Amino acid sequence: MKKDKLHIHWYPGHIAKAERKLKEQLSLVDAVIEVIDARLPYSSSYDNITRLLGEKPRLILLNKSDLTEKSELKAWIKKIETETGFPVVLTDAKNSKDLSNIVKKAVELSEPRIQALMAKGLLRRPARVMVVGMPNVGKSSVINKLTRSSKTKTGAKAGVTRQQQWVRINPQLELLDTPGIIPMKQDNQEVAKKLAFVNSISENAYSNEAVAIELLDMLNEKYPQIVKDYYKVEDITLENIATARNWIISGGNPDTARTAVYILRDFREGKIGKFILDDITE
Predict the structure, then answer these.
(1) Cα atoms found within 13 Å of the Cα of residue 25, Cβ hemisphere only
(2) Concatenated DSSP letters of 187-206
(3) Over the stretch 10-41, which tens digit does the pLDDT of each residue have?
(4) Partner residues linked to 181 by β-bridges
C-alpha cells in the first residue's frame, strides 16, 4: 500500500471566542486543574498555557496513566514539575485512590488567593477550582470522579452567569462543573498526528488509514516487539495485519480500511500495550 503523506486539516473555529470564555471562567477560580494525556505529556499540553492562565496556580494531572508504562512516567513527572514549578499527579478514570491527594493539592494551591481575600476583610470561603485541558484528554472524567462523592450543586455565585454551576466537593473545595476547553490552532503536524492517535482531533480531519500507518510506524520504531507479539506478524504493516486477521475484501485484497479502524481502537483502549509516544528530549 502506497504511503501518502499525512496532513491533518484541523482548524477549530472561534479560537478568540473560546479563549475569551475560558478567561471569564478563570476569573472565578483560585486555581486550575490542568489535564494532560499521559501518553502525550508534551503534545497534549498547551505550549502557551502560562499566557492563557496568567499567574493562576495549577495542579497538573497526567490522565489515562493506566494506558502508559508507569516507570517511564517518573522522568516526565520530574521534568514537568521542574519546568512549571507546579505539582504533577497521575490519575485515570478507573481508579479513585488518588482522589484525596488531588483534592488536598487543589486546596493547597488555592490558599494564597484565599488568604489575600481575607486580608482585604472578606470571610474565608471554600477554595474554587476548575478543570482545563485540550479536547478529549479526559476533563469530564476527572470532573465526574471529583464530583462522584458529592452531587451537591451550590448554585450560581454573585456575579456569575446562571450557567456556571458549582459542586461542593467537601467543606474546603468547590468545583466549577463545566470543563474549560483550551482552544488550539494546530500548525505543528507532528503534534497533530499524535493527537489524532489518541482521538483528540475530530476524525473528520484525517483518514483513518493514513493515521493508522503513521501510528504503526511510530510503534514499530519505539516498541517493535510488543506490536509484533500482539498482531502476530513479523513485518508490521496494515496489509500484513489484515491478512493475519483474515480480513479480505473482493479480489483477495486485504481490507486495510477495516484494519485501520481496529488498530486505532486497539491502541486507544490500551490493548496493544502501554506506551508514551512523546520523546522526553522534546
Answers:
(1) 26
(2) --HHHHHHHHHTT-S-GGGS
(3) 555 566 777 778 888 888 999 999 999 999 99
(4) 133
